[in-house]
Design a protein that fits this description.
By secondary structure, the chain is α/β, with parallel strands linked by helices. Helix content is 32%, strand content 20%. Strands 12-18-17-16-13-15 form a six-stranded mixed β-sheet, with helices on both faces. A five-stranded parallel β-sheet has the order 1-5-6-8-11. β26 and β27 form a beta hairpin. It is globular and about 90 Å long. The structure holds beta-D-glucopyranose (BGC). The site of beta-D-glucopyranose (BGC) has 7 residues, from β6.
C-alpha cells in the first residue's frame, strides 16, 4: 500500500470515514483504493474474538483463559509474560486478529477499582516492565497490541465522564511511566485512550496527553484508538491526536468532520495524519498475517503452568504446607468446585476448559469435600456450614477455597468495600475454632480484608488464575510446585488504611488524587504503617540468604549510573525461585518523595545450596523525580540509598551512593527569596554569606550560635530586612541585583569553561 498516494486520492468524506471503525471490531475498507480491513479483539488474558458477519458479530470463540494480570504480575517474571504474549499472539494469527486489546496498565490506586484484576500493579515500574514483556511477546508474533487505558483511569465509577484531578508530577511519576516504558521498551502498535477526563479534558481529546506527552516527549509513532465509546467531540479528538474512533459510529461523525475541515475548524493536515496512522496499522496487520494453529490443549497446559509461577504463599505457620499425601484433608468452599478464575467485562473469555481443584483432588491425597458456602453469593446456609464443620472434625487439615463471587468485582463498577462475603468469614472463624490447622486459598482480583489472618495457619493467594487454576493450586498445596509469586500490590489491613480512601471515588464528577505520589507501598512504607501483607511479599517452601551487596561505584553522574549486584543462596532443601527487589531511597532532601521506590527486580531459580548473582543496572531515571518547573526528570546531586530485599518491608542490605555533576538550579531572585534558599544553593551561598553577614549578625544581635542564626534566618525573605533592620527599598533591591549579577557571572564562566 502506498499510503501517501492513497491519502492523496481519498475524498474528504473517505478520510473522515477512515478514522472510525467498522462495527465493533474492524477498520473500514476501501476496495477501490486497495485498502482492506483488519480486525481487533479483546484481551488481554486470552482471545475474546467475536465472529459472524463483520459489523454484526454475535458469537464469541472458545479460547484459552490465561491467568489475569492481577495474577501474572505476581510472577515478576518477564520471560513468562513474554511467553504468554507469544502464545496469545499465535492465537491471534490463527484467528486472523491483527491487534489484541491490551495489556492494561492502569495503576491500582484503590483496592476497590472493579477492574483491578485486569491491571498489573500499584507500582509503575512493575507495570511497565511486565507490560513491555507481554507486548514484546505478542508483537514478536507479528500481531499488534493496544496498551490501555491511557491514562489515569483508576476506577470504574463515572468512568466515562468523571475527571481524574491529578497534578503533573504525580501523572509523570505514577500514572504515566508504565505507558512510557512500554513505548521505549516494546513500541506497542497502538495505544487505547481512556474514557475519563484528566483535569477536565477527555483523554480522547487531550492534546497534552496524546500529542505533547505521548508523541513529542516519548516519540511514539504508532496509532491511537479510543476506548469503546470514549469519544465526546470527534473533531477536537482529531486535532488532539486521536486517530481512530472505536467502535464505528455508523459514520455519524463523518459529516461533522467534513464540515469542520470545510469551515476551517479542523486542519485537513491533522485529519490526514490520523488517516495515515490508521492506514499504516492496516498495512502492518495485513503484511504480517500468517497461518497458525490455535492449539487449545497446548495453550491450556501453558496457562496452567503459568499460574503455577504466579501463586503467592502468604502465610505458612509451622510449615503447615505443603500437604502430605497421607494427611486427611477437608476441602471446603464452593470455589474448590467452581473456581473464580477470571473477571467480568470485556476481558471475559469463553473458556476452553476450566479445571477445578476438586476435580483433581483424588490424584493428590485423601480428602472430603463440603461446599460450606456458595461461591456465587453472600448467603449463610446453615446446613452447608454444619456439614462442613462435621467433615472438618475428622480431618488432619482444613483447606478453605474462599474468594470474591463474580458479582463482587467486574469491569463497569467498583466494589463498595474490601471484605470477603460474610458467610465465608463466618465459616472460616468456625473452622478455626475446631483447633485444626486451617489453610485458606483465595480467588480474588484485588486485595480483601482478612480478619482471621492471625488465626489461620496458611494463606495461598491464587488471584484469578485462569482456566487451569485448580491444578496450579493443588500443585502448590501438595508441594509439586514451590510457590514463587510475590504481591504486586500491598494488602492493607482495612480499606480505610488505603491512601485514596478519603477521595475515592470522588464527587461532583471529579476524583481528586490528593494522595499524590503516595500510592500503595509508597504511602504505607513512608508512613511506617502496619499492613496485612506488604508489596513484594511472598513465601517459599525453601529459604534464601542474601549476601555480598556490591555497587560498581560509590559516586557517579546521573548519566553514568551504577550497577548493583547481590548474591542470593537457596539455603533450604528444595529448589525454589526468589524475586529479588531493588529499591532506591532519595536522601538528598531535594523534594518530597516516598521513602523508597522499586527500581529493579529479577527472579532467580535456585537449586538447594546454589548461589546466583542478581544484577541491576540503575540509570538516571532510577534516581530522578519529575521536576515540573524544568519540564524534565531531575536526579539532584547528593546521597541515595540502594536497598535490596525480598519485599518492600524486608530489606536485606543497603548501600549508600552519591550522585555528582547534576545541574544545580540557581534560586529565582526577588525580594521574596528566602535567605535559607540562598544559603543552601551553591550559586548564592558565598555571595549571600558575604553580603548579608553584617545584617544577619545585627538581626541576631550577636547572641546566637551559628546554627541558630541559620535556623532563624532560613525562612526570612530578603525583604524581611526592610521590616526588621530598617533597610530601604533601594537597599533591598540592590542586594537582589547583586545576587542576580553574581549568578549570571558564574553561569557565564561555566558556559565558557
Ligand atoms: C473496555 C476496553 C475494551 C473495549 C472493547 C471497553 O469497554 O474499557 O478495555 O478493550 O471495551 O471491548
Amino acid at each position: 500500500m502506498d499510503i501517501e498516494a492513497i491519502v492523496k486520492k481519498m475524498t474528504l468524506e473517505e478520510k473522515a470515514k477512515a478514522v472510525e471503525g467498522f462495527g465493533f471490531w474492524w477498520t473500514q475498507e476501501f476496495p477501490e483504493l486497495g485498502v482492506p480491513q483488519i480486525q481487533v479483539s479483546d484481551g488481554p488474558h486470552g482471545l475474546r474474538k467475536m465472529y459472524g458477519t463483520p459489523g454484526k458479530e454475535s458469537e464469541t470463540i472458545t479460547a484459552v483463559c490465561f491467568p489475569a494480570a492481577c495474577a501474572t504480575a505476581c510472577s515478576f517474571d518477564t520471560e513468562l509474560l513474554s511467553e504468554i504474549g507469544h502464545a496469545i499472539g499465535k492465537e491471534c494469527q490463527a484467528e486472523d486478529v491483527a491487534v489484541i486489546l491490551g495489556p492494561a496498565v492502569n495503576i491500582k490506586r484503590s483496592p476497590l477499582c472493579g477492574r483491578n484484576f485486569e491491571y498489573i500493579s500499584e507500582d509503575p515500574y512493575v507495570a511497565g516492565k511486565l507490560a513491555s514483556a507481554i507486548i514484546n511477546g505478542v508483537q514478536a508474533e507479528d500481531v499488534g497490541t493496544s496498551i490501555k487505558h491511557f491514562a489515569a483511569n483508576n476506577q470504574e465509577f463515572e468512568r466515562m465522564y468523571g475527571s481524574s484531578e491529578v497534578d503533573e508530577r504525580t501523572l509523570r511519576e505514577i500514572y504515566l511511566p508504565a505507558f512510557e516504558m512500554a513505548v521505549k521498551e516494546a513500541d506497542p502498535w497502538t495505544f487505547m485512550c481512556s474514557y475519563n477526563r484528566i483535569n477536565g479534558t477527555y483523554s480522547s481529546e487531550n492534546p497534552w496527553l496524546l500529542n505533547d506527552v505521548l508523541r513529542k516527549d516519548w516519540g511514539y509513532k504508532g496509532m491511537v484508538m479510543s476506548d469503546w465509546g470514549a469519544v465526546s467531540d470527534r473533531v477536537a479528538g482529531i486535532a488532539a491526536g486521536l486517530d481512530l474512533e472505536m467502535p464505528g459510529s455508523d459514520c455519524v461523525n463523518v459529516e461533522r468532520i467534513c464540515k469542520a475541515v470545510q469551515d476551517g475548524e479542523l486542519e485537513e493536515e491533522a485529519l490526514d495524519t490520523a488517516v495515515k496512522n490508521v492506514l499504516r496499522l492496516v498495512q502492518r496487520g495485513i503484511e504480517n498475517r500468517r497461518d497458525e494453529v490455535f492449539d487449545h490443549e497446548k495453550d491450556h497446559k501453558f496457562a496452567t503452568e503459568a499460574e503455577k509461577e504466579c501463586i503467592v504463599l502468604l502465610k505458612n505457620e509451622g510449615k503447615v504446607l505443603p500437604l502430605a499425601k497421607e494427611e486427611k484433608v477437608a476441602l471446603i468452599g464452593g470455589f474448590a468446585e467452581n473456581p473464580r478464575y477470571q473477571g467480568g467485562g470485556s476481558s471475559h473469555i469463553e473458556s476452553f476448559k476450566v479445571v477445578s481443584a476438586l476435580s483433581l483432588a483424588e490424584k493428590y491425597g485423601t480428602f472430603t469435600y463440603n461446599r460450606g458456602f456458595s461461591e456465587k453469593e453472600d448467603v449463610v446456609d446453615e446446613k452447608l456450614q454444619q456439614e462442613a464443620l462435621d467433615a472438618a472434625k475428622d480431618a488432619d487439615k482444613i483447606v478453605v477455597f474462599a474468594g470474591l463471587p463474580d458479582v463482587f468485582e467486574s469491569e463497569g463498577y467498583d466494589r463498595e468495600h474490601m471484605k470477603l462475603p460474610a458467610c465465608q468469614n463466618l465459616l472460616i472463624n468456625q473452622l478455626v475454632r475446631t483447633g485444626k490447622p486451617v489453610i485458606v486459598v483465595l480467588h480474588n482480583g484485588s486485595p480483601v480484608e482478612l480478619p482471621w489472618a492471625d488465626d489461620v495457619a496458611g494463606i495461598v493467594e491464587a488471584y484469578l488464575g485462569g482456566e487451569g487454576v485448580g491444578e496450579a493450586v493443588m500443585d502448590v498445596l501438595y508441594g509439586n510446585v514451590n510457590p514463587s509469586g510475590k504481591l504486586a500490590e500491598s494488602f492493607p489491613i482495612k480499606l480505610q488504611d488505603n491512601p485514596s480512601y478519603l477521595n475515592f471515588p470522588g464527587s461532583e464528577h471529579k476524583v481528586k488524587y490528593a494522595e499524590g505520589l503516595f500510592v500503595g507501598y509508597r504511602y504505607y512504607d513512608t508512613k511506617q504503617m502496619d499492613v496485612r501483607f506488604p508489596f513484594g511479599y511472598g513465601l517459599s517452601y525453601t529459604e534464601f540468604r542474601y549476601s555480598n551487596l556490591r555497587v560498581s561505584r560509590d559516586s557517579f553522574t546521573a548519566d553514568e549510573g551504577v550497577t548493583v549486584t547481590v548474591d542470593v543462596t537457596n539455603i533450604g532443601d528444595r529448589a525454589g525461585k526468589e524475586v529479588v527487589q531493588l529499591y532506591v531511597a532519595d536522601k538528598t532532601g531535594s523534594t518530597i518523595r516516598p521513602v523508597h521506590e522499586l527500581k529493579g527486580f529479577c527472579k532467580l531459580a535456585l537449586e538447594p545450596g546454589e548461589t546466583k548473582t542478581a544484577t541491576f543496572t540503575l540509570d538516571k531515571r532510577s534516581f530522578a523525580w519529575y521536576d515540573v518547573e524544568q519540564g524534565d526528570w531531575y536526579a539532584p546531586n547528593g546521597l541515595y540509598t540502594v536497598e535490596v530485599g525480598s519485599s518492600s518491608r524486608d530489606i536485606q542490605y543497603t548501600a549508600d551512593v552519591r550522585i555528582v555533576g547534576s545541574m544545580v538550579k540557581p534560586p529565582v531572585i526577588s525580594p521574596d527569596t528566602q535567605i535559607g534558599e540562598l544559603l543552601e544553593n551553591p550559586y548564592t551561598k558565598e555571595y549571600t554569606m558575604e553580603c548579608l553577614k553584617p545584617y544577619i549578625d545585627k538581626y541576631t544581635h550577636g547572641h546566637s550560635s551559628d546554627e541558630m542564626i541559620m535556623a532563624l534566618v532560613r525562612f526570612m525573605p530578603i525583604r524581611g530586612f526592610r521590616s526588621f533592620l530598617y533597610l530601604s527599598n533601594e537597599e533591598v533591591d540592590s542586594i537582589c541585583e547583586g545576587l542576580k549579577k553574581n549568578i549570571e557571572e558564574q553561569m557565564k564562566q561555566e558556559n565558557d569553561a
